[in-house]
């Protein structure tokens, strides 16, 4: 696709904005969408003209391959606004790179960077009023790609649709959460698709997560499928453990999503001289640390939840409570991250991407 | 849902059949669909009125949860016709049971048996002309269910659509195939969703299968994700090994689909006094058997391919050719199966299900 000729973005504006129908103070995540959406179809081996049109339902064949064989990948990112009305994205090129990594694993075509960045920034400008200022507010941006070829043979599709839709958001989890360390169910295996944001990875977690929720745990921390001895990540967050003053987190592998929040947190911790160990973290060392009091914090890190502190975990029938700590790393890192995202502090790594 | 009141099947017939547009001698699997389709929506906790309507595209929200989180399951079955024009399905209640097992694993609702069987048989009667007589011909029937709730929160959908669409088919593989035993990639893990016909399981196989195909292997035989020492199944077939006169096949587990062809083959083999061992089959024993000449056959078993003989496999950089054998079990079992399906022989287990 390197020799593809780029066609110009076509734009069709909505007749009248729907923004006044939305109560931004009471937002149910992911149900309201902005005025416009971006889409681009892959047909006959080439990406066709990209378009921004009013957000609307689409027509799909019942045989569209995504519905049968799960060729579908997605991304999640957020747009923020400062008090001067300037809008920002956070490391958006990384989302572009990652959706292409996910796509490759599912035998789907790469989406060109030019189309991604132009579609994304134009959409942000058109729907700018939907990005509300104030820390905690954001516009959740969902790029995704799925197979549309109307053919139910179990083989890669020949046609795809790439879209970007946007939904206003508040922070995902408001209070501390309790989690279960997985002992039976698994999210991904070596040689599998766990490192991809593949649609099927998420549906696979709903049932075991539902079982955990019935027992009072909001999330599962997945362990490796092979031994269940290593702590990997949560459903939509990477996981950090603070033992004494050191932060621990699992290395990236083919089972773990290479989270953009995760790598930003590692960088921010290093910037603050917090020792970080990126290595396999065992269930037993965390239980031991919880027992002897050296486990100070566990928190998740991801675009939706930002930083999500964890107050307790269960494993092997035992519940471990993690007392509140002074000088919480989670709170400090969360503030640093939000300040960069909302243009309230210096951005020495160049993560902010102004939409203009 | 046990106290659900069943509503009557609504039927809207096509104005004019499309059957004359189809060249039944040159069918590209899964691209042509019959005149009608069945659908039923799950809304507000209940299945709504089931309907048969002309096959047509549908309207879906871009936020429909199946496209983001992969809540989608399916089934595959076939309808056959004898020379007197009678139409038959093969063990259709098992497909109904299995789609509900798949659905449960993905936190989706059960589809009621009454709706399934009535929708299926009515659709078969309406599109009966699309089932062509003659061994090898069949109508492939695809029940499937997917999440339609327009909300991109990573949690189970509240709304679903169940559909049945049908596509005329010839046998899937015409000649013997060559396969690769998987050493790196994996299809499913303990505690995962491998036993479900979950959409995401199929997309996950396309990329590694594509790599195998470039090297001249049509399919991968998946090994267990943990050790890659045990032979499990192929992408859309269970696998049998004949060592001397004994048939070996892996036991059902949470990594392996409980194939209807597989269990029928086991029964037919037992009926013919072929010794069958349902147990873990190791890569090393099969390589050894191939080397010492006791490996007589390998074949896949599944609805699409029926029985698919395998002529060679590769593992650890070594290629093992399996010479043709006299008195092939694969051919004998295939004939027995097709004869039952096409009403050419006695059906002592009651597998045939006449559509009338
Ligand atoms: C499985 C999984 N892990 C981790 C993350 C966090 O990644 P990021 O920080 O890039 O949002 C996400 C969500 O995006 C995810 O889906
Ligand atoms: C993964 C997998 N294994 C095995 C089979 C064979 O099952 P059945 O004989 O019920 O068609 C299928 C296809 O249906 C399948 O998708």
TrEMBL record, chains A, B:
Enzyme class: transferase
Catalytic activity: L-leucine + 2-oxoglutarate = 4-methyl-2-oxopentanoate + L-glutamate; L-valine + 2-oxoglutarate = 3-methyl-2-oxobutanoate + L-glutamate; L-isoleucine + 2-oxoglutarate = (S)-3-methyl-2-oxopentanoate + L-glutamate
Gene3D superfamilies associated with the record: 3.30.470.10, D-amino Acid Aminotransferase, subunit A, domain 2
CDD domains attached to this UniProt entry: BCAT_beta_family
Cofactor(s) this protein cannot do without: pyridoxal 5'-phosphate
The protein's annotated pathway: Amino-acid biosynthesis; L-isoleucine biosynthesis; L-isoleucine from 2-oxobutanoate: step 4/4; Amino-acid biosynthesis; L-leucine biosynthesis; L-leucine from 3-methyl-2-oxobutanoate: step 4/4; Amino-acid biosynthesis; L-valine biosynthesis; L-valine from pyruvate: step 4/4
Record-level Gene Ontology MF annotations: branched-chain-amino-acid transaminase activity; oxidoreductase activity
Keywords (A to Z) from UniProt: Amino-acid biosynthesis, Aminotransferase, Branched-chain amino acid biosynthesis, Oxidoreductase, Pyridoxal phosphate, Transferase
EC number(s) recorded for this UniProt protein: 2.6.1.42
Classification via InterPro entries: Aminotrans_IV (IPR001544), Aminotrans_IV_CS (IPR018300), Aminotransferase-like (IPR036038), B_amino_transII (IPR005786), BCAT-like_C (IPR043132), BCAT-like_N (IPR043131), BCAT_family (IPR033939)
Family designation: Belongs to the class-IV pyridoxal-phosphate-dependent aminotransferase family.
Function: Acts on leucine, isoleucine and valine.
Protein name, per record: Branched-chain-amino-acid aminotransferase
Organism: Bizionia sediminis
């Amino acid at each position: 696709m390197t020799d593809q000729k780029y066609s110009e973005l076509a734009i069709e504006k909505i007749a009248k904005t729907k923004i006044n129908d939305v109560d931004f103070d009471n937002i149910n995540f992911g149900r309201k969408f902005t005025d416009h959406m971006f889409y681009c179809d892959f047909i006959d081996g080439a990406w066709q003209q990209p378009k921004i049109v009013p957000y609307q339902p689409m027509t799909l064949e019942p045989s569209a391959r995504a519905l049968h064989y799960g060729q579908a990948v997605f991304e999640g990112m957020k747009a923020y606004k400062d008090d001067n009305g300037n809008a920002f994205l956070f490391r958006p090129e990384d989302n572009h790179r990652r959706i292409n990594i996910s796509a490759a694993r599912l035998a789907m075509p790469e989406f060109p960077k030019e189309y991604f960045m132009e579609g994304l920034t134009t959409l942000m400008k058109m729907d700018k009023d939907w990005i509300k200022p104030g820390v905690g507010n954001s516009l959740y941006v969902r790029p995704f790609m799925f197979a549309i070829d109307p053919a139910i043979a179990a083989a890669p599709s020949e046609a795809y649709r790439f879209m970007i839709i946007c939904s206003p958001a508040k922070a995902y989890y408001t209070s501390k959460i309790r989690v279960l360390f997985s002992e039976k169910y698994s999210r991904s295996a070596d040689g599998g698709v766990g490192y991809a944001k593949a649609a099927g990875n998420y549906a696979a977690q709903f049932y075991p997560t539902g079982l955990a929720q019935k027992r009072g745990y909001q999330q599962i921390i997945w362990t490796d499928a092979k031994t269940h001895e290593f702590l990997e990540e949560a459903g939509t967050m990477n996981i950090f453990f603070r033992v004494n003053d050191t932060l621990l987190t699992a290395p990236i592998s083919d089972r773990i999503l290479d989270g953009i929040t995760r790598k930003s947190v590692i960088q921010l911790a290093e910037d603050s001289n917090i020792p970080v160990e990126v290595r396999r973290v065992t269930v037993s060392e965390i239980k031991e640390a919880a027992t002897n009091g050296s486990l100070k914090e566990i928190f998740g890190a991801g675009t939706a939840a930002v930083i999500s502190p964890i107050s307790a975990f269960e494993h092997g029938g035992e519940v471990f409570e993690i007392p509140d700590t002074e000088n919480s790393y989670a709170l400090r890192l969360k503030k640093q991250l939000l300040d960069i995202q909302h243009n309230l502090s210096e951005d020495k790594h160049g993560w902010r991407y102004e939409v203009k």
